[in-house]
Amino acid sequence: MTMQDTNVQIGCPHCHAVNRLEAARLNEAPNCGACKAPLLAGAPIAATKESLPLILKHSKLPVVIDFWAPWCGPCQQFGPTFAAAAKDMAGKMLFIKVDTEAQPELGNQFRVRSIPTLLVVEGNAELERVSGALSPGQFKAWLMQFL
Ligand SMILES: [Zn+2]
Q1: Half-sphere exposure of 82 (CA within 13 A, CB side)
Q2: pLDDT at res. 4
Q3: Beta bridge partners of 64
Q4: For the structural domain made of 43-144, what CATH number should be given?
Q5: What is the predicted pLDDT for the residue at 24?
């Protein structure tokens, strides 16, 4: 892989097959090559230190990132809220999850000090962040300001 590589690897949130696609195609509602379900709609996708920069660079939608870890209770509690919002707001925002255990570089890069931390990024600029698990109502209200 070179610095010029613009292919992004995305694990399908439905069947977990790894899809490799041109980053610019992120905005064309790509389907999973294996199960044909929409890759970026209806469920959060897991990002890595390789895929996140490409997603942020190419996404025309605001991106909301959930920094979490498997051992974090509040993160587990918040997981279904994040997943439900990803379903409700498909096509309006892109919902990304970063496992800070598996991807510590990303936690450092975004200066994440506590988890869960939620971050909204648009056009490579951070718009806002909030730490701590929000209720479904709070989360929805928080997201609405970016639409
Ligand atoms: Zn799939």
Answers
A1: 26
A2: 55
A3: 95, 120
A4: 3.40.30.10
A5: 87
Domain boundaries, the chain: 43-144
User: What pLDDT is stored for residue 1 in this prediction?
Assistant: 46
- Ligand 1 midpoint to CA 32 (Å): 5
36 CA distance to ligand 1 centroid (A)?
6
pLDDT for the residue 138? 97
Q: Are the beta carbons of 94 and 63 closer than 8 angstroms?
A: yes
Give distance in angstroms: CA of 44 to centre of ligand 1.
Answer: 13
**Residue ranges in the chain whose pLDDT is less than 50:** 1
Q: Are strands 7-11 and 63-68 parallel, antiparallel or unpaired?
A: unpaired
| 12 tagged catalytic | no
Ligand 1: centre distance to CA 21 (Å):
13
- Residue 72 appears among annotated catalytic residues: yes
